[in-house]
Design goal:
mainly alpha; 3 domains; 18 helices; elongated; two-stranded antiparallel ribbon; 443 residues; Fumarase C, Chain B, domain 1; Fumarase C, Chain A, domain 2; AdenyloSucc_lyase_C
């Protein structure tokens, strides 16, 4: 098995995501750092920190020069960071020492690498958000279409009370909306990093803050107003958002693993996976992927810490390199798979109705106990119905019949029809409305 199934030739059909992979590739990282170096030189040139002609030359050159990431491997291994090797390679490639001398002036490696990371994250998070918005729209449409479809709600793996399938879909959808809201809050706050070697910006010129603001404007990123070399709360927040995305997918995945079981069969999925030996199998591969990605993301996120040692922390930084790319790809893949799953869902209403209409009528025990509570204390009513439920299981007689016989003066509640679903249809439609709003950018 490859060290990372996300880019494994064998497993990429299961976990791979070509769009996300491009954003976390070595080529994308080098290109992003070059854009940062070029933008920094341009801003510094306009501010008079370096010769303006050199700033303009470097900004243009960083758009044109090509650097092979593989050629930086030895330097990165020796230095523990890729920027020194990159800057040296760029200066050689430029063949203009009078300008190249001003490249990376006053900044430190972490400034360039972290800002390049933010550029790539801005695109990655936008991609994830777009996928989640599409999934929320699909969930909203499904919830609305199935708002009045009766289905058995389950608690602790047991049939509990009547609900609606649309309301269950809404329960899958609300975490998706929350994840979208968190992404929309985080994306505008992705910051540049420009603090110099020790976080003081002392070599960036007479007004380091102005250079930082200019760099943020040039790159379309936020100005953090400070050094965040050793304060990694934003990275921890990013990990939390990625984990929330995968967790949202896992809720639908977990429930679909139950609803598609052979002995439940209330939902069918188009395009299930095949078994190597059992021809009848249609395995719920996509829901399993959703659950696995959430478990993976939770474990990965736990490795990151918002606290860093001293002015900069190499070990903490290295840990981010190991964890963040896979976390971001996991979130992107989860959002994509969720959208695919929703397009493959086919509810089996007859199977849902059969579950609700099981002969013993035990699903109505709660409603019957509350009806009986009008004639006796609540605790006694619950005990009475519990006793009769046991008798129903022993004798095979329906619980509603036993309650009616034991309490002939009791007016039984409706056991079929919309009244049995409570607020479930309204909950489904409320979510559908919220999903439409989030898709319109109003949520």
């Amino acid at each position: 098995m490859s060290a990372s199934p996300f880019d494994s030739a064998l497993y990429r059909g299961l976990f791979g995501d070509a769009e996300m992979a491009r954003l976390v590739s070595d080529t994308a990282e080098v290109r992003a750092m070059m854009l940062v170096l070029g933008a920094l030189a341009s801003v510094q040139g306009k501010a008079g920190v370096i010769p303006e002609v050199s700033g303009a030359f470097l900004a243009r050159a960083m758009m044109e020069v090509q650097v092979d990431p593989a050629g930086l491997a030895e330097s990165t291994g020796a230095n523990g960071v890729s920027v020194p090797g990159l800057v040296a390679a760029l200066r050689r490639a430029l063949e203009a020492p009078e300008h190249a001398a001003w490249l990376h002036f006053g900044a430190t490696s972490q400034d360039i690498q972290d800002t390049g990371l933010m550029l790539r994250l801005a695109r990655a998070l936008a991609l994830i958000e777009g996928r989640l918005v599409a999934a929320a729209g699909a969930l909203g449409r499904l919830a609305e279409a199935e708002a009045d479809t009766p289905v058995a709600a389950r608690t602790y793996g047991q049939v509990a009370v009547p609900s609606s399938f649309g309301a269950q879909v809404a329960v899958w959808g609300w975490p998706v909306i929350r994840a979208i809201e968190r992404l929309r809050d985080l994306r505008p706050r992705l910051p540049v990093s420009l603090s110099g070697a020790g976080g003081t910006g002392s070599m960036l010129g007479p007004d380091p803050a102005a250079i930082r603001v200019g760099l943020a404007e040039a790159l379309g990123l936020a100005d953090p107003g400070r050094s965040w070399h050793a304060e990694r709360s934003l990275i921890a927040e990013l990990a939390g958002v990625c984990t929330a995305v995968t967790t949202a997918g896992a809720k639908a995945g977990e429930d679909l693993l139950i609803l598609t079981r052979s002995d439940v069969g209330e939902v069918r999925l188009a395009g299930g996976g095949a078994s190597s030996t059992m021809p009848q199998k249609e395995n719920p591969v996509a829901p399993s992927v959703l659950v696995a990605l959430a478990r993976f993301a939770a474990a990965q996120g736990a490795a990151l810490s918002p606290a860093s040692r001293e002015a900069r922390d190499g070990a903490g930084w290295f840990t981010e390199w190991l964890v963040l790319p896979q976390l971001v790809v996991a979130a992107g893949k989860s959002a994509a798979v969720l959208g695919e799953v929703l397009g493959a869902i086919a509810p089996d209403r007859s199977a849902m109705a059969a579950r609700l209409g099981e002969p013993l009528g035990l699903i109505h025990a709660e409603a019957l106990s509350f009806a009986l509570a009008r004639a006796m204390p609540r605790s006694e009513a619950q005990a009475a119905v519990k006793r009769l439920a046991g008798e129903a299981k022993r004798t095979g007689r329906a619980l509603p019949d036993l309650v009616a016989e034991t309490h002939p003066d009791l007016t039984l509640p409706p056991l079929t029809g919309p009244e049995t679903l409570g607020a479930a249809p309204d909950d489904a439609r409320s979510f559908a409305s919220a999903a439409r709003a989030i898709a319109d950018g109003q949520g």
